[in-house]
Write a structure and sequence with these properties.
With 504 residues, the protein is of the alpha/beta class. It has helices at 6-13, 56-61, 75-80, 91-103, 119-130, 146-153, 174-182, 197-200, 203-211, 232-243, 256-264, 310-325, 330-337, 366-378, 399-418, 439-451, 465-473, 493-500, and strands spanning 4-5, 16-19, 25-26, 28-30, 40-43, 65-68, 84-87, 110-114, 136-138, 162-166, 186-189, 224-228, 266-271, 278-286, 289-296, 299-305, 348-352, 355-359, 384-390, 430-434, 458-462, 480-485. It folds into three domains: 4-89, MurE/MurF, N-terminal domain (Udp-n-acetylmuramoylalanyl-d-glutamate--2,6- Diaminopimelate Ligase, Chain: A, domain 1); 106-271 and 310-327, Mur-like, catalytic domain (UDP-N-acetylmuramoyl-L-alanine:D-glutamate ligase); 348-500, Protein-Tyrosine Phosphatase, Chain A. Helices cover 36% and strands 21% of the residues. It has a nine-stranded mixed β-sheet with strand order 9-10-8-11-12-13-14-15-16, with helices on both faces. A six-stranded mixed β-sheet has the order 17-18-22-19-20-21, with helices on both faces. The radius of gyration is 24 Å and the shape is globular. It starts with a strand and ends with a helix.
Length: 504
């Protein structure tokens, strides 16, 4: 933060200053007391597992300022520290007020990235492209919620030219709040899946929620909406933008503000369809390099990425599209994208004892799981392919159905490989599942194989990560590639740890 004092924070949040110097300057906001220092504001937040209010004294001892919903100190603490205590009824609401007020001090453009799958990878690729010319602030870690976006907004500074914020939602109405905080000028929507279906009930509701990312842009006439034209839900939004006919939305109940902005904003599309503004064609994989030809209004450009998976082609297309908004030609963006590598637990490949482990354990959705399976099928120098898949959480009453359909997808994928309909890909040889819901993956797989009289692949279900890892390790793994993926709450990184010798 720049030029923010305790007095400013009190004014912006409506907080009561209990003690401390009003002129004390605050340079950073933290929500973990371990990051507290003499120049920080520690926001005490009561979470599901940990109540930050229990750590306020530790922050005060470090001369940090504290934003709290209760008075945390004893008299001797007040007399011995150089911190401050500000009290509000709700610390999360106060944090958002502070971030929104601080955002008003900056005119720099914000690129907002959302979608059911690929937000982080897209954010990273967009940043790669923009960093060829600009000084970028980008979302760190998983700071993509109301709390996280507020913290990232607080890190805006005059030194930055553009900010790239990942924006994720888990319930209706949340994106409107995030848009109010960040006020994106450019919004990228990667896809509409079934993540958080338990809260949203339908994909149409998810789509409406995601499209609120652009609802609080500063000037709708300068706004740019970048959409994946191959996504069936986003196709409806594209058609609505082009026709102004609300029937095209087919049940996607966009907010009035989102409709208003979409009508005025510039639309850029990307994907494989012929009418995309940024189109990929001639896709191939050779020696670990994903190659394709970019076709756009600026001509054609041969592209190569050092990462596998169709999803990374989409991410790269959106990154090059964002680059052109800010005057960066696609070939310049491509030079940076060639060096892109996935973040830890998001598709990183670990080699150990003659086999490879694809660590894609950060989180999972049905679509991202399919993408992970495709990457497994693309890997070269592999004699056996094992997919270790754990439960996908927050699917509500459709959980069994969606996991069952995922099993059918695996069988259909193997069938397509066998019949030559997926050239360049190899079959998944072994399926290992963890958790009660993932058991239905095996059921869907077996039912499809039986109905089509296909040779069954090996498939085993387990209750624990340790049992799944032990089974995999009992096999001859020389030349094997193993995909590990599941929802964050399933802690599939434990399987990776067992397989790579890091967890014993």
């Amino acid at each position: 933060m720049e030029g923010i004092t305790v007095k400013d924070i009190a004014r912006m949040t409506g907080a009561r200053l209990v003690f401390g110097r009003p002129d004390k300057e605050v340079k950073r906001i933290v929500t973990d007391s371990r990051g507290s220092d003499s120049d920080t504001l520690f926001v005490a937040i009561k979470g599901e597992r940990v109540d930050g209010h229990n750590f306020m004294t530790q922050s005060l001892i470090k001369d940090s300022c504290v934003l709290s919903s209760r008075i945390p100190y004893h008299q001797e603490t007040e007399d011995s520290v150089d911190g401050a205590v500000l009290v509000v009824p709700d610390t999360v609401e106060a944090l958002m007020k502070l971030a929104a007020a601080y955002r008003e001090r900056f005119n720099l453009p914000v690129v907002g990235v959302t979608g059911s799958v690929g937000k982080t990878s897209t954010k990273e690729m967009v940043s790669c492209a923009l960093e060829t010319r600009y000084n970028i602030l980008k979302t760190e870690g998983n700071l993509n919620s109301r709390i996280g976006v507020s913290v990232m907004v607080s890190r805006l500074a005059k030194a930055f030219d553009i900010a790239v914020f990942e924006m994720g939602i888990s319930e209706p109405g949340e994106m409107e709040q995030l848009s109010y905080l960040a006020k994106p000028r450019v919004a990228v929507v990667t896809n509409i899946g079934v993540s958080h279906l338990n809260q949203f009930k339908t994909r149409e509701n998810i789509a409406a929620g995601k499209l609120d990312i652009i609802s609080e842009t500063i000037d709708p006439k300068q706004a740019v909406l970048i959409l994946n034209a191959d996504d069936d839900m986003l196709k409806r939004v594209i058609e609505y933008k082009r026709s102004s006919d609300e029937k095209a939305l087919g049940g996607i109940a966009l907010s009035d503000r989102a409709k208003e902005v979409i009508k005025k904003a510039e639309l850029i599309t990307y994907g494989l369809a012929d009418d995309c503004d940024f189109k990929a064609e001639n896709i191939s994989v050779y020696k670990g390099i994903t190659r394709f030809t970019l076709v756009c209004s600026r001509g054609k450009c041969d592209c190569g990425l050092s990462v596998l998976g169709m999803h990374n082609i989409y991410n790269a297309l959106s990154a090059m599209a964002v680059g052109t908004v800010f005057g960066i030609e696609p070939d310049i963006s491509l030079r940076a994208l060639k060096s892109y590598r996935p973040l830890n637990m998001r598709g990183t490949i670990v080699e150990h004892n003659g086999y490879k482990v694809i660590d894609d354990t950060y989180n999972a959705s049905p679509d991202s799981m399919k993408s992970g399976l495709t990457v497994l099928g693309e890997l070269e120098d592999t004699s056996l392919r094992i997919a270790c898949l754990a439960d996908i959480l927050e699917l509500g009453e459709k959980s069994e159905e969606i996991h069952y359909e995922l099993g059918e997808y695996i069988a259909q994928y193997n069938e397509a490989v066998d019949t030559g309909k997926k050239p360049g890909f190899e079959k998944i040889d072994v399926i290992v599942t963890v958790g009660p819901a993932a058991h239905f993956i095996v059921k869907g797989l077996r039912d499809y194989e039986k109905a089509k009289e296909l040779d069954p692949v090996i498939a085993k279900s387990f209750d624990t990560n340790k049992d799944a890892a032990d089974y995999i390790l009992s096999r001859n793994l020389n030349g094997t590639s193993i995909l590990c993926k599941g929802s964050r709450g399933m802690h599939v990184e434990e399987v990776v740890g067992f397989l790579t010798g890091e967890k014993r």
